[in-house]
Design brief:
The complex is a heterodimer of chains A (272) and B (155). Chain A has 272 residues and is mainly α. Chain A has one domain. Chain A is built from eleven helices and no strands. Chain A starts with a helix and ends in a 5-residue tail after the last helix. With 155 residues, chain B is an alpha/beta fold. Chain B has an eight-stranded mixed sheet with strand order 7-1-4-3-2-6-5-8, with no helix packed on it. Classes of the chains: A mainly alpha (272), B alpha/beta (155). The interface between A and B is medium-sized, with 33 and 26 residues.
Chain lengths: 272, 155
């Protein structure tokens, strides 16, 4: 029977092998990422004892992301104001514009869009930086000097990201509400008192604002972990670092959207 | 970059972020929870609560005086037992009436309190005896149609 010797180098066999290999690789990477995450948490002491390191990283992840966050927030809020007015006026409910703008920003758009921007602005930079440090053997040099690179390099970046993310999301939401106010009240002429008072009575401190902050903290943890891990795990070549940077943006954006669904399902089901 | 300049920028960033959070908390949102410390609870039983939800407002003369803390079904009397959490600042006579009302035609449902004339005031865990259930639209239509049929019936 010739079929047995054909099997050894058939396309089918190779593709099955390939599939198994990729699956194993994926499981191995998830395990490594989990171990990495625990190691970062365990080595966080340095990030707080030498807080200067964390402040330095907050400058790069937080302060330098400010421009894009503020400008995007303003425009998202202005678009919400225009689109919301278009729809609400057909029901004669223009005064509810404040509710629409504030709720959609505080609950969803603030945390999610700020996280997506943060992933592409700061996450990619973190991955490229750590990947390059690894490629130029700076991380191994630190180990030779008995300096733990996870404590010295990774943990401060992690905490800087986790602290910056909720602040950026809050700034995004505040800026968006201001944008909605500019378009709705100043440009279109919705009543200013109704805009603010209806917003205030509809937005709940715990249900809406606190949950939005919780969301942004979770996104901050997810994005910085993915970015740091991709950089730490990047093949030490130019190609490897560029691939890792791309993967950071893609994976963390998907993670943010998936986590957002899960968190929303938990937060907004029991109420009402 | 100079370390002090860098610290300054991060400080400004954190201040701006906290200010944004405060803006959201104070200007955009408001807390609807009446804290348990300065409130008291009274219980009212209704035959039908309609679409009343926990955390719905309790109003007297249109002013919010509390929130619905809990709603559950009493399997002995087959009524809905609603726990009303009222602000300590407001005291109501013992014979206060509670009714479930709707704000606007399609708005949310709330409990309206109408103060009675008793000289004794409601205390914690007291019961409101005079209650009025939610208006169920189907019942209303049913009654209307029944009335029409009665009118049109040949004598």
């Amino acid at each position: 029977m010739p079929t047995t010797c054909d099997w050894e180098n058939s396309v089918l066999k190779r593709s099955i092998e390939n599939l198994g290999n990729r699956t194993l690789q994926g499981v191995w990477r998830i395990g490594f990422a989990a171990r990495f995450f625990v190691a970062v948490l365990l080595h966080s002491g340095t990030a707080f004892r030498r807080f200067g390191l964390t402040i330095r990283e907050m400058y790069f992840t937080g302060v330098l992301s400010l421009i894009i966050i503020l400008v995007s927030g303003l425009f998202v809020g202005m678009v919400l104001g225009l689109q919301g007015y278009e729809t609400l006026q057909t029901y004669g409910a223009e005064e509810a514009l404040g509710i629409l703008v504030a709720l959609s920003l505080v609950r969803e758009l603030g945390p999610v869009v700020a996280a997506l921007l943060f992933a592409s602005r700061a996450g990619s930079a973190i991955t490229a930086e750590i990947g390059l440090m690894k490629a130029t053997e700076q991380l191994s040099a630190m180990e030779m000097m008995a300096v733990d690179p996870i404590a010295r390099v990774v943990a401060p970046r992690f905490w800087a990201g986790v602290i910056s993310m909720p602040l950026l999301a809050a700034l995004f939401s505040a800026m968006g509400i201001f944008g909605g106010y500019l378009v709705g009240v100043q440009l279109i002429g919705v009543d200013e008192g109704a805009f603010w008072s209806q917003m205030k009575s509809a937005v709940d401190l715990e249900r809406d604002i606190l949950n939005g902050v919780i969301k942004s903290v979770v996104f901050g943890v997810a994005i910085t972990t993915i970015a740091l891990f991709e950089g730490y795990d990047a093949p030490p070549t130019a190609e490897g670092v560029s691939g890792a940077t791309t993967r950071t943006v893609v994976t963390s954006s998907l993670a943010v959207l998936a986590l957002d669904f899960v968190l929303t399902a938990f937060m907004f089901r029991g109420f009402n | 970059m100079n370390k002090t300049v860098l610290d300054l920028w991060v400080g400004l960033f954190v201040i701006a972020g906290v200010a944004a959070l405060l803006f959201l908390a104070l200007k955009v949102g408001s807390t609807s929870a009446v804290s348990a410390a300065n409130s008291y609870e009274v219980i009212a039983r209704f035959d039908n609560i309609g679409g009343l939800k926990p955390r719905a407002p309790i109003k007297s003369a249109g002013v919010v005086v509390g929130r619905v803390a809990d709603i559950h079904f009493d399997n002995e009397t087959f009524e809905a037992a609603v726990t009303l959490r009222l602000d300590n600042r407001y005291a109501f006579p013992k014979d206060t009436a509670a009714a479930i009302m709707t704000s606007g035609l399609l708005g949310e449902q709330y409990i309206g309190l109408e103060a009675g004339g008793d000289s004794l005031m409601l205390k914690d865990q007291d019961r409101i005896f005079i209650t009025q259930s939610a208006v169920v639209l189907e019942n209303l239509i049913g009654r209307f149609m029944y009335g029409q049929a009665q009118e049109g019936a040949p004598q």
